[in-house]
UniProtKB/TrEMBL annotation:
EC number: 6.3.5.3, 3.5.1.2
Protein name per the record: Phosphoribosylformylglycinamidine synthase subunit PurQ
Pathway(s): Purine metabolism; IMP biosynthesis via de novo pathway; 5-amino-1-(5-phospho-D-ribosyl)imidazole from N(2)-formyl-N(1)-(5-phospho-D-ribosyl)glycinamide: step 1/2
Organism: Sphingomonas jeddahensis
SMART domains, per the entry: GATase_5
Hydrolase recorded as keyword: yes
Gene3D superfamilies: 3.40.50.880
Cellular component terms (Gene Ontology): cytoplasm
Chief location bin: cytoplasm
SUBUNIT field: Part of the FGAM synthase complex composed of 1 PurL, 1 PurQ and 2 PurS subunits.
Pfam family, one: GATase_5
Gene Ontology BP annotations: 'de novo' IMP biosynthetic process
Catalytic residues (positions): 87, 195, 197
Compartments, as annotated in UniProt: Cytoplasm
Length: 221
């Protein structure tokens, strides 16, 4: 499967994502600089990595969301291509309007960097099909703006439509309803704060993140 990783000034998890994607797909991802206006053809996944794009100035992800490449990402997402945003990537996707809600400063005002328990709420999406519904997995978080907020109506809609992909099994950052990852209405865009790309091989202390990428591979055929 051909994949692309979008890179912004200040991205710092782009290489983690590239190594994970290459490990799972067997093909090196194409790294796409934010100033590009077009994405390579034939992609099975666009990945938006974690980091501190534009130094988190203004709001995390706000400036990156206005990069030239994000128009192409939005077009591909509208066409049904899987788009995965992790951590800062999740922040970028909410700021770009591809996902609802926003990521605010953690409730404790601290940078949280540790393993957390996540429950898989929806195991039917392209990203979560290799997990069992209700399964608990362990994946690391590393962020200061992971506190997911949205109005009650949006939260109810996300829950009602099965668009909460992952939920924290414990209090982590103050996120509404302990939401850790959400899907767009079509189910082809996932944003999540925890880092599955850092749980790919035994040396990482576990492989719980690997199945997310394997599920996508299965769909791409
Ligand atoms: N690891 C990351 O992507 C960090 C995301 C973001 N800059 C934050 O700290 O909230």
């Amino acid at each position: 499967m051909k994949t692309a990783v979008v890179v912004f000034p200040g991205s710092n998890c782009d290489r983690d994502l590239a190594v994970a994607l290459e490990g799972v797909t067997g093909t090196k991802p194409i790294m796409v600089w934010h100033r590009e206006t077009e994405l390579p053809v034939g992609l099975g996944l666009i990945a938006v990595p974690g980091g501190f794009s534009y130094g988190d100035y203004l709001r995390s992800g706000a400036l990156a969301a206005r990069s030239p490449i994000m128009r192409a990402v939005a077009d591909k997402a509208a066409g049904g291509m899987p788009v995965f945003g992790v951590c800062n990537g999740f922040q970028v996707l909410t700021e770009a309007g591809l996902l609802p809600g926003a990521l605010m400063r953690n409730a404790g005002l601290d940078f949280v960097c540790r393993d957390v328990a996540l429950t898989v709420d929806n195991s039917q999406s392209a990203f979560t099909s290799r997990y069992a519904a209700g399964e608990t997995i362990k994946v690391p978080v590393a962020h200061h703006d992971g506190n997911y907020v949205a109005d009650q109506e949006t939260l109810d809609r996300l829950e009602g439509e099965g668009r909460v992909a992952f939920r924290y099994g414990e209090e982590v950052n103050g996120s509404a309803r302990r939401i850790a990852g959400i899907l767009n209405d079509a189910g082809n865009v996932l944003g999540m704060m925890p880092h599955p790309e850092r749980r790919i091989e035994g040396a990482h202390g576990g492989t719980d993140g690997r199945r997310l990428f394997e599920g996508l591979l299965e769909i791409a055929g």
